[in-house]
Every structure is written in structure tokens, then in C-alpha cells.
Task: inverse folding
């Protein structure tokens, strides 16, 4: 089975095409945007697979989006999405830790330059 969604684009007036396939209990998605064409997880695929109606270029495709979301629920995508969200939290924590360390070292250098190194 296959479904095609026209997805809004923030960079061009014409929509991108997101094609979602459900074959042999496996989900696949392709997008015609530059990132999607090289196989990346673009915002268009992410939005369609997350059942985000704001991405719809044509609101009449709501039923088709519902069908895609049924396929998504039968796939491993929800667990992969959880894994991605956890990795994002870990990334944000690591960035915050690095920023604090950077600030601490910067203040240390400033203090030592005032006192003499």
C-alpha cells in the first residue's frame, strides 16, 4: 500500500511530496525536498509520520494522513521516535554542561589575568 501527502514548504510556494509505503509490515517514507532526496529524516517526513496536520498543503488529505498514522502505529517508528527524543535530551544536557564548563574556564582566565598569570 502507498499514500502520497503534499507537504507545505517553508522555502518554496509549491509543496513537497511525501510518499509513505506499507509493505510486508514495514514502513518506508520518501520526500521530494533536498534533505529527503538524500535520505535524511526531513521535517516533512517527520511531520507526516507524527500525524501533524499543520504540514498538509491540502487539508482534504486528512483521511490519507489518518491511514498513514495507522501504519505508523503498527511499525517500530514510535519506539524509534522515543529513542530520538531521548538522544535529543541527552544532547541538550551535554551542551548545557559544556556551556557551564566554558563559562567557568573563561571566568577563571579573566580572574587570573587580573591577578597576574
Result:
Amino acid at each position: 500500500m502507498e499514500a502520497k501527502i503534499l507537504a507545505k514548504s517553508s522555502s518554496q510556494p509549491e509543496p513537497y511530496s511525501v510518499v509513505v509505503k506499507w509493505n510486508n509490515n514495514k514502513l518506508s517514507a520518501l520526500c521530494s525536498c533536498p534533505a529527503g532526496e538524500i535520505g535524511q529524516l526531513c521535517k516533512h517526513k517527520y511531520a507526516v509520520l507524527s500525524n501533524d496536520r499543520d504540514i498538509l498543503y491540502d487539508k482534504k488529505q486528512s483521511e490519507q494522513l489518518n491511514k498513514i498514522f495507522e501504519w505508523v502505529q503498527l511499525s517500530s517508528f514510535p519506539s524509534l521516535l522515543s529513542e530520538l527524543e531521548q538522544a535529543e535530551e541527552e544532547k541538550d544536557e551535554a551542551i548545557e554542561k559544556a556551556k557551564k564548563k566554558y563559562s567557568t574556564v573563561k571566568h577563571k582566565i579573566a580572574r587570573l589575568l587580573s591577578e597576574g598569570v
Observations:
- The radius of gyration is 21 Å.
- The chain has four helices and three strands.
- The helical segments are 34-37, 43-49, 62-74, 77-115.
- The first strand starts at residue 2 and ends at 7.
